[in-house]
Specification:
six-stranded parallel beta sheet; Rossmann fold; 338 residues; alpha/beta; Dihydrodipicolinate Reductase, domain 2; homotetramer; 13 helices; 2 domains; seven-stranded mixed beta sheet
Chain lengths: 338, 338, 338, 338
């Protein structure tokens, strides 16, 4: 049998359970040996379903176990940076859900700890592992479209999260657009130098009252000279709208939405097809499995993670720049942020 | 915790392992307690991977276990009828891969044993559980297209199976078209009264030497007056081509192929998209899970299986009729077969 | 200025006016010099709109004019064969709407007259000139799909014609399927050897009372070994459904419907697109222009017409064979017809 | 017979000939009575082909003719404003190709003359009459998507015009984006308040040397709160890329490209479809006819033109604002321009 990586899960909420299940059932090289959650019952339920032998409500009990080689951090965002530091100091390899933090100093301290410990750190930008987006990126990298000139990203949620979540989310650019900022870098492999953001409160006035916007449009200028545009909405009534487009000197690539079925009805009214897959759990199932597979493989094979610490930091800088741009109504260079 | 159904797998080949894995990992109401294969090593390997407690090379050792409530028969086709009889006599509920047999007398004996024992029998026509085909059938049943008038089924494999397999397969109509015969019945809920089959050896002359055809076109006449057409090829170089169409008095439904990704490249040559999902394991993954879920649910809830014994028998009659039609070059009523 | 061909139109009904307008406005090498219709007012109205100098209610007055080099026959079907004979004897080149006749003897006499006179005869199978179908045929001819194995043609009208028309139409196979029989030959360049037809009265019982069927499915066996299938309905509520498919050893081609617009609406109910172009006048506008352009060019350049006399005769044989097959419930070889 | 409008064409270049042909052949209510071009031979050639009775090389000879009721101005851009003034003073209704001018003072003087004379003025923003874009706008107006939130316009030419043309074109925002500025207003019926433009020279360095950019991305903020984005490239190797998207509170509309044919080839490499229609003459044929039909109808029926003088002025303001935004690297309110 091939060698298996012993993994502990920290955080047994929705995304933690998803990762735990994928690691337990769909990644033969992974062995989930422990799970921690401050809500012990959540950890226990997950452990029972997946035959995870060790359960705790204290992540420190996980980090001190010698059999644990790697941790998957799925706890609340405000704990990420600190847990990365602690795990790095304990010599564990780390997968951490995005974002690391909204505070660049905390991010930098966490990344320093990782570098110091020489452990691997992968950030959970799952969309890079979506087969369609990955295929687009691969075609760009293979030169199928020549030099990239324009990037367009549409990313719209089916419905806003609860207003209480919005209030602590860091706002649309750090909570939602952050995935698109990562995608913008990933697709063409060039860095963004400046952003210009506009936004509005068109979906729900309570989002505005919380100091956030619910509809946004961000212009990107890349170091390569390419231009980019991201549009976001917190509510697309037809479902989760996730499309990208890259246009270049010798071609263009469009990625359309995925649907639950391919049945098309024609009747006297028109031609009717299914709406897109409803939300991220359905849309990115394959991507969640693939990112975890990539993490396990990079540890076992001692290769650099496909989404490293700086890949976690830069989209936060972009998100902060977008907020500053929106407030000051001017384009913002990333160097103005840090 | 909800009650779980104790299941034994008989046959640890490719499809047996697929079902075992789905039952173990993706269907919480299932509990795989035993696995049997005449090749004991195959059963053991599967058991180890999925934590199945009991392993044997003798299916009888499974049928005598009191904890086994249901069996999933995935052994070679020539053993299906006999295993159904034995399992029914042992009082076990039965899921059996298609076809039951190519001999109607054996089928009838097996179905009689099932009826006698009062156990449930579900046949493995997995395509009924494909989300797209199911959506089409549901829309037909909801009256979205009114009265069905025409059914078109395209079903082409990416490449022929080994010639040795062809020789014992029962020929294209019983091996390949049988799925389409089932689909033809399923889609509109009317029975077929007669078939007319034409065929040719256009892919590989060795298939012709084996007494089979590799390209076929079958016309169906339904009891309702509707007409149907099925076309098959053993080799579609672009991949697994699985499309259906139902046309009726107030609308029509088309189901197109599913693809591994939605990335579309436009360049100076044209607009290029991905080929269909390569073969049945990729194309029908969701369907394999859903059919097993349906089986487990119908046993636990004491409902009739969604694909019963007669659903297993009739497509065999259709396949035999198609062969007779091809040989005699005339339309064949199913009543001429049995 | 390039030389122009002097043309007379015989028949100023719907299709006659269409051809006249195309010749007058969209084909610079054509010069419409005369128009005849037994309903003189119809001819006069068309002449006034298009500045056609000579108008008559007697086609003979057209055929005796020395300035007329070619005629476009758009009169009622029962006059076609006789007009072809007369025009050939007058030494005029001929474009004739399909079908030449339903009586093979009349067809043969007309074709003999054409051969005797050495004039050109083109039959109005306009669909060959549709850009999509032509592109499919060209790709087949270029070898893009290798050896053709399967042909599928779907051809459904938005609504049945008046029952009075049905009664004199020759029935579905000679009135409607005849276009598909031509398409079947055109697409792969192989002759059909036998047909098997089934049909039903599912749309309108009056069609059945008229001795016709309104829904049909025809199986074709080609000399090359390829197989074909045509399905027809007199009523597709979603519009004119005109699709073809050719499948071969190294690829397959599908032609989907054309739509009036490309606007796609996504809402809470689904994703909605336009229905196909409504009927043949919209769907085949480009094809009508292109076939007339081809006729004018073949006369001016002294090349054989792209759709010759035998191309007009063979689909009639196929239609007669289909009727005989339907009635006798057996496959019919074309050699049994004549 | 219905009353016909007597029209004179001024300018017999490419677009002038297109309009003349449509008026002569496809719009029965139009009567082309005169054509003028400073290159008399061009006017004469067009007149001969279309049977236009009066030809001149002096537009004044057209404006003094009492039989001329309306003029269609297709001369070079620098003459538009002056010709509008002269035609208005002569009491002629006016269709004028876009743009009126790049100088707002000249535009305002022309519009004043039109208002003074009480004649009708329609500007040639043909894309509004494209069936797909019109369908999108109509669905927006019907409330199918609720309140519009986001507008996306992609507009890319297959290849740059000659560099000599670029030099006098007013630059990308006044030459190319101007159509998209009009579309942005048209689609949702709300005015744009500010624009932010970024651009680059990625296609051809000579375009940069001419002081222009060849790739651009413009952000729009509407009075309604909606946001918009336009992207342009002077060279899309796969052809003329003309897509729009409007997203709103209860739905979204996407308009995809139109293609010359619907034949789709599947082979071992992938699935291949046709590129978009090559350029504006193919893509917007129906739109050119429809805009001219609309002009003729609005004059004959004494209704306001569908694209009036302010519709010609505002996109010029937007283009000037985009240039200023690009140069000053900040968002620009239209009120800063005039």
């Amino acid at each position: 049998m091939t060698r298996r990586l012993n993994i502990a899960i920290i955080g047994a909420g929705r995304i933690g359970r998803v990762h735990a299940e994928h690691l337990a059932h769909r990644i033969p090289e992974a062995n989930v040996v422990a799970i921690a959650d401050v809500v012990r019952a959540a950890a226990e339920e997950c452990a029972a379903a997946l035959h995870i032998p060790f359960v705790t409500d204290d992540h420190r009990a996980v980090l001190t176990r010698p059999d644990v080689e790697a941790v998957v951090i799925c706890s609340s965002t405000d704990t990420h940076a600190q847990l990365i530091e602690a795990a790095a100091e304990a010599g564990k390899h780390i997968f951490c859900e995005k974002p690391i933090d909204y505070d660049l100093r905390k991010i930098d301290r966490a990344l320093a700890a990782v570098a110091q410990a020489g452990v691997k750190l992968q950030i959970g930008f799952n969309r890079r592992f979506d087969p369609s987006f990955k295929r687009a990126r691969d075609m760009v990298a293979e030169g199928k479209i020549g030099e990239p000139h324009l990037v367009r990203i549409t990313s719209r949620d089916p419905a806003p999260p609860p207003i209480e979540y919005i209030k602590v989310s860091g706002g649309i650019f750090l909570d939602m657009t952050i995935h698109d900022f990562d995608m913008a870098r990933y697709l063409i492999g060039s860095e963004v130098e400046s952003v210009y953001a506009v936004g509005g409160v068109l979906v729900d006035p309570r989002i505005g009252e919380a100091g956030d916007v619910d509809t946004a449009l961000v212009t990107l200028q890349y170091a390569s000279g390419a231009l980019g545009s991201i549009d976001n909405s917190r509510r697309a009534v037809y479902g989760y709208d996730q499309r990208i487009e890259v246009f270049g000197s010798v071609g263009g690539i469009v990625v359309t939405n995925r649907t639950p079925d391919n049945a098309i009805l024609s009747d006297a009214e028109g031609v009717h097809a299914a709406r897109p897959l409803h939300f991220f759990m359905e849309r990115y199932t394959e991507a969640f499995v693939a990112e975890m597979q990539a993490f396990v493989s990079c540890v076992l094979d001692d290769r650099p993670p496909p989404v490293g610490g700086m890949d976690g930091r830069i989209p936060v800088v972009m998100g902060l720049a977008a907020w500053k741009s929106l407030r000051e109504q001017r384009p913002m260079r990333l160097t103005e942020i840090g």
